[in-house]
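Support request, please re-run this one:
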Amino acid sequence: MICSDSQLVHAPTCRTTSYNPQQNEHQLALNLDLIDEHRSQAQLRNATYKQRTARYYDSRVKHRSFKVGDWVLRKVSLATRNPTEGTLGPSWEGPYEIVNICRPSTYRLRGSDGQTLGHPWNVEHLKFYYK
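Re-run finished. Output below.
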């Protein structure tokens, strides 16, 4: 049923009775004046949150570094995995000897057969091999 505007019942509510247009305009203008301050406070809270999160993460990271001559195992990736082994295949392959340190946490490897691998490997794909 569609009612026209003249048939609606207008019951006063607390919100409509306490509405003051001049005070509303004044409050909106005040909020616009303070928006830059609110924005800068939000940026400070965001920066503080990021610093706390980074500090928490960094406190739990185990930094690994290797020296030339150390032996390591290399993580088997999808590209190097043998498809006939399926999910029960090995997760690590090697051992490999560290021949060169290209950059911090990037190493060039040589297999136990003496053949150097084609590209350097990041430390997150390596783990120490105990002989």
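The chain has two domains: 14-60, 71-128. Strands lie at 71-75, 92-103, 106-111, 121-122, 126-128.
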